[in-house]
């Protein structure tokens, strides 16, 4: 039996137009190297960020991150699987079992007449039986991820357009249920 037939794919995405050059957003992403730079991206939800293998955003590099989603702290470990400068970054969980349920996440940049469109995409797989019995909880989780992606895009837009991201002092983490 093919386990993928038991899973339904859900793609969650958010995009925002940014009035700047694609290089500006890639500089912002490439500068994500530590807790302070990660918190500056999303001060309300991002907690910690460490590259544990390789150079930032190179294919094969591994990062550990902690963030709030739906008011709960999630510890994430991802490997970069694709990187085309100023166009796309893809990453996936390092643990094979998590990759069954989270096969790919992406940051995609497309040129527009006023600048570029930044798109964050998360691909998830949900068991059909689990969805049947936990539909409300799954819907809440999807909505929390959508909200988080939208907020990340807004923070990124504000930072890149104002060119202040490298000057922002990350505040101390104040626990709350911000992503609910």
Structural write-up:
There is one protein chain. Helices cover 31% and strands 37% of the residues. By secondary structure, the protein is an alpha+beta fold. A seven-stranded antiparallel β-sheet has the order 1-7-6-5-4-3-2. A hairpin with an 8-residue loop joins β2 and β3. It starts with 6 loop residues before the first strand and ends in an 18-residue tail after the last helix. The C terminus is likely disordered.
Topology:
Blueprint: E1 7-18, H1 22-30, H2 35-41, E2 46-53, E3 62-69, E4 72-84, E5 88-93, H3 96-101, E6 104-111, E7 116-127, H4 128-133, H5 135-162
Antiparallel strand pairs: 1-7, 2-3, 3-4, 4-5, 5-6, 6-7
In short:
The chain is of the alpha+beta class and 180 residues long. It has helices spanning 22-30, 35-41, 96-101, 128-133, 135-162, and strands spanning 7-18, 46-53, 62-69, 72-84, 88-93, 104-111, 116-127. It contains 5 helices and 7 strands, in the order E-H-H-E-E-E-E-H-E-E-H-H.
Low-confidence stretches: 164-180
What is the molecular shape?
A: globular
Q: Strand count, sense and closure of the main sheet?
A: 7 strands, antiparallel
Number of helices: 5
Query: For the largest beta sheet, what order do the strands appear in spatially?
Result: 1-7-6-5-4-3-2
**% residues in beta strands:** 35-45%
Radius of gyration, in Å, reads 16 Å
Taking the alpha carbons of the first and last residues, their distance comes to: 37 Å
Total beta-strand segments: 7
Structural class label: alpha+beta
